[in-house]
Amino acid sequence: MEPPEQEGKRLYLIYISMTELELQQYLLREYPQENARCEWKEFKNLKNSFCGDEKNDVISYVSAIANMEGGDLVIGVHDKTLEIVGTDTYNYDKQKAILRLTERCVNLSTEDLYIDEFITDDTNRKVWVIHIPKHLPKRPVFAHNKAWQRIEDSLVEMTTERMSTILDEPIFSETDWSAQIVSDATIDDLDEVAIAKARMMFKKVHSRIPEAEVNAWTVKTFLSKCGIMKNGGITRAAIILLGKYEAAFKLRPAVAQVTWTRRDERQDVVDYEHFTVPFILTVDEILSKIENLTMREMPGGTLFPDTMKQYDDYTIREALHNCIAHQDYMMQQRINFVENPTYLYYSNAGTFIPGTLENALTNEEPQAYFRNECLCRAMVDFNMIDTVSRGIKKMFNEQWRRHFPMPDYEIDAKNRKVSVRIYGNEINKRYTNLLKTNNSLTLWDCISLDAVQKGRTIHEDVAQDLLSRGLIEGETPNYTISLGIAKATRQLQGYTRQKGLDKEKIKQMILQYLKNAGTDGAKRDSIYEYVKDVMPQVKTHEQQLRLLGDILSTLSTDKLIYPKGRTWFLKG
Questions:
Q1: How many whole angstroms separate alpha carbon 195 and alpha carbon 387?
Q2: Burial (CB count <10 Å: 0-12, 13-18, 19+), residue 181
Q3: What is the second-level CATH architecture of the domain 20-167?
Q4: pLDDT tens digit string along 204-248?
Q5: Percent of the chain with pLDDT over 90
């Protein structure tokens, strides 16, 4: 068996065991002199250095280096000799530091933005090397509302000449890979069923175009209208979405493949399968592999549990479509989709197009550009992704609505990889109960509280706000969801467990459960598992089963349900 790729590999940190002298020699070898691409700085305390005075703080130097050709900022060394003095990173880890840089350096790209950390064995001094990417075309990087550059030994506000050079750069330095014609491909390489589905979805998206008109288009006309056929040539995007299985080989050396893997509680692989084109069809095959269990949930403020799937259909589909749309196919890697008992894991090769997760969640404008422009536009036409880039925010809102943990994005700029975890269970009951009972929470409140439940650091200003509202308790950095709120939310459920519901309410629950079960029906044991928590807890297990039997018999006599073998069904 071919083992699938491991999930979640991250290489943000290069750590080599070194003494202070060895580290100094290493730094002198790798970063021998200060220039427009390299800066040495002491910055003994990053608390002040990340938001200090203009021209004299970290973000000013990041702006200056980015506005030339990119380069490196070495922190924790003497700026003349590279003598190691160390730096106090305060409350910053590497991820938080990158987040602060992208927040405070306007237009800073996350592609190839990463930090190496070194801690000397003998003196325990810490050194950071921030690797800074070159600015994006036409987008100078600003700090303190100014664009900076380095001229000789000085940091100065960007000259008019340099600003003009950046603004005159072409937006696209390379052609769209997905728009390129596959020279030996013809319409015969496309799957007829895939084309039919694409046409059907096109009509839904473009409902203003008369259906009869779309139906009358030839295949060539239809594909041309969608931009995936140009001058009679078949594009790579057409192969990815609509190509026959064997047509995938015409994309070589690029890899158009999704590997689905199922792991058990011990993270052992129990099953896997590789899927390829046409993705407009095979996405359904991939998602059908998921064991999307039906779960029971007790909402706040009510005695009636709801049934729901472990994963929201929109969310799991959107995450996979995003991987296909934004994969850097030139990196010759598979898209990974890993099913774990409590979460789904997705990863694709390439940088994160919005730059940061914050940008993706806050930007109200459509995405300005895509890595695979031709592919993405076709996926919009086929209703696979959102034209106004609302998909990620909607995924967060769906998890919020379901009272589940927020998706976890990992943006590995160094290795050009984006991954996301979608959770299908609660992590912290306090968090879940809080979401059920507090209608005043915003999405950003929930994201912050989600970080708390996962034991992650949140910004002190955010923490103070949550503390003042009684939503969290503790001291920095060890906050937890407020216990007082958690206790309050369990009062109703505690009452229910002792007294139980009356028979009429249990009847309604059973009818709703069988309605949700549909043609599959439900056995008595499954029905009992659904209602046992609202049965009188003063009764024994045997008494509860007899009560359930009486209720089922009554519903059957009333011709509301009927048995078939040992399975019960709702009467239609």
A1: 21
A2: middle
A3: 2-Layer Sandwich (3.30)
A4: 999 989 999 999 999 999 999 999 999 999 999 999 999 999 999
A5: 45
Considering the domain 500-570 in this protein, what is its CATH number?
Answer: 1.10.10
Domain boundaries, the chain: 20-167, 177-251, 258-423, 429-491, 500-570
Instruction: Pull the structure tokens for residue 135.
Output: 């600015």
Query: How confident is the model over 504-563, as pLDDT tens digits?
Result: 878 888 888 888 788 888 899 888 888 887 787 667 888 888 889 999 999 999 899 999
The per-residue pLDDT for range 419-451, each reduced to its tens digit, is 999 999 888 888 888 888 888 889 989 999 999
What pTM does this model have? 0.62
Residue 321: φ, ψ to 5°: -60, -40
b/e per residue, 130-166, with b = 16+ CB within 10 A? bbbbbbbeebbbbbbeebbbbeeeebeebeeebeeeb
CA dihedral 95, 97, 100, 104 (to 10 degrees): -130
Architecture per CATH, 258-423? 2-Layer Sandwich (3.30)
